[in-house]
Amino acid sequence: MKRDKKGIDITNGPIGSQLILYAIPLAATGILQQLFNAADLAVVGQLPGQLGKAAMAAVGGNAPVIGLLVNLFVGVALGSNVMIANAIGQKNSKAASRAVHTSIIFAVLGGIFLTIVGELIAGKVVNLLVVPKEVYAMAVKYLKIYFLGMPVILLYNFESAIFRSCGNTKVPLIALAASGVLNVLLNLFFVLKLGMDVDGVAAATVISNLVSAIILFVCLLKDKSEVRVTPKKLRIDGSMLWRILKIGIPAGFQSMVFSIANIVIQKSVNSLGTTVIAAASAAYNLEIFAYYVMNSFGQACTTFVGQNYGAGSADRCRRSLRLSLMECYLATAVSCSLILIFSKPLLGIFNHDPEVIDIGTIRLKYIFFAYLFSVAQEVLSGYLRGFGVSAIPALCSVVGICGVRLVWIFTVFKRSKTFTTIMQVFPLSLGVTAAVILIVTLIVRPSKRFHGSGL
After folding, report:
1. Looking at the predicted structure, is the pLDDT value of residue 2 above 70?
2. Distances from the Cα of 363 to the Cαs of 66, 88, 138, 231, in angstroms?
3. SS3 of 8, please?
4. Residues in Cβ contact with 79 at an 8 Å cutoff, skipping those fewer than 6 apart
5. What's the whole-number mean pLDDT along residues 145-155?
6. Which residue from 19, 20, 171, 283 has the highest number of Cβ atoms inside 10 Å of its Cβ?
7. Angle between helices 15-44 and 49-61 (to 10 degrees)
8. Is the pLDDT reported for residue 326 higher than 80?
9. Which residues contact 256 (CB under 8 A, 6 or more apart)?
């Protein structure tokens, strides 16, 4: 297999093995990043008695809010990924460089904006989530500290997108591995040694993200390829930012609206009490591992299609889609099966309460069944975005996922307020969305429609 110093040579060689080599470090990176939150929950969940449950609820209950704001900018990072990959496929190093430097400045400015907004609205947001009284103060404290780290959290995500665009998923993994070890050590030090609670785990997360962002920035400064960062070139290129936003905003809007629907669902979960919140939080921190395995192939499809589209190879774009779907289904099935087999001891890591474990197991079963449809939705969305078609999957997801979930919560759940009722909406909404995106992809047929044209 051909390789260069930057990573995988995406426009040449066997696609099947290249996808695996690209996706495995990417999945590992996502899983390791999620371990930041899992470590937070695991540590605070060991606090004595009701305090442990309340701390878990405070950390886990904030997840949809954090996702709402972060995902908007992570979607824009996906726009950077596509533009850089397309420029590399076209061998246009100047365009790639402009996209890289614009992305980094935008990440920092966007992070500062989120910090300011987050500090102003943290209390109001927690109020909207209707958390129990015993959870409110800790939830606000955790959210405010987390918001302070937004500039470095977004910077890390944009830097990772830059490396992924040129086929390199290993460097972000190495950076995150180093900061992940630091995160666990800081969690233990702040909580067990200094007696802190959610403020300790939030501070540990921010510090570890700062370390990973610095590592990647130094690597970009030393890189010898078209994605190398030169400090004097760090500025916003207006035309390039527009092209990035043209792809990234619909993707970010999709994730943001998706998070809004999840906030409504989280609010419904919160209404069922602290035990249910703790159980849902623990299950989420397991199911997300399988999601990152699945999502890695969707992102791989975007990058492979983006570069091969830039190189004018429509056939490799189509083959990337077929192989991404096949490999994604296989990898997701394996990861979901392993988590289900060991679900009870894994949930017990977060909290030993049998009721928490039982409710968490129910959530895992429903979510993993829904992943049958989510694989198609992720990979087909990634395929379309690789061609620069970002608005269509965003619209499909808004209607299929968000629309169905909101209607379900305000109608069906209103009549039957149980945890099982909430969980039933996941396979339903993802099934509808996958069917719609498949139909749209067959109609649009981007590999034929866009063959021979550039972004």
Report:
1. no
2. 21, 42, 25, 47
3. strand
4. 243, 244, 245, 246, 247, 248, 249, 251, 390
5. 92
6. 283
7. 140
8. yes
9. 68, 69, 71, 72, 75
Contact 79, 385 (CB under 8 A): no
3-class SS letters over 267-281: HHHHCCCHHHHHHHH
What's the CA gap between 74 and 62, in Å, rounded? Answer: 18
Q: Report the alpha-carbon angle 364-24-227, nearest 5.
A: 125
pTM for this structure?
0.76
**Residue-level pLDDT at 4:** 42
Element (H, E) at 7: strand 7-8
Share of the chain above pLDDT 70, in %: 95
Task: Identify any residues that bridge with 8 across adjacent strands, giving them in sequence order.
Answer: 3
What residues contact residue 137 under an 8 Å CB cut-off, 6+ apart? none
Virtual CA dihedral for 224, 225, 231, 233, nearest 10 degrees? 150
- Integer Cα distance of 46 and 69 in angstroms: 29
pLDDT class of 128 with cuts at 50, 70, 90? confident
Q: Exposed (0-12), middle (13-18) or buried (19+): which is 451, by Cβ within 10 Å? A: middle
Task: Identify whether the C-beta of residue 285 lies closer than 8 Å to the C-beta of residue 365.
Answer: no
φ/ψ (deg, to 5) at 224:
-105, 5
Q: Which residue has the tokens 């402009």?
A: 98
Helix residue ranges, H only, 311-353: 314-341, 343-350
- Give the whole-angstrom CA distance, residue 138 versus residue 361: 26
349-369 exposure pattern, b = at least 16 Cβ within 10 A, e = fewer: ebbebeebbebbbebbebbbb
> Is pLDDT at 126 greater than 80 in this prediction?
yes
Write phi, then psi, for 8 (nearest 5 degrees): -75, 140
Percent of the chain, pLDDT > 90? 38
Which residue stretches of 90-197 are H helix?
Answer: 93-128, 133-148, 150-165, 170-188
- Residue 281 and residue 350: Cα distance in Å, rounded? 9
Tokens found for residue 144: 């405010």
Query: How far apart (Å, rounded) are the C-alpha atoms in residues 166 and 227?
Result: 8
Angle between helices 274-310 and 343-350 (to 10 degrees): 110
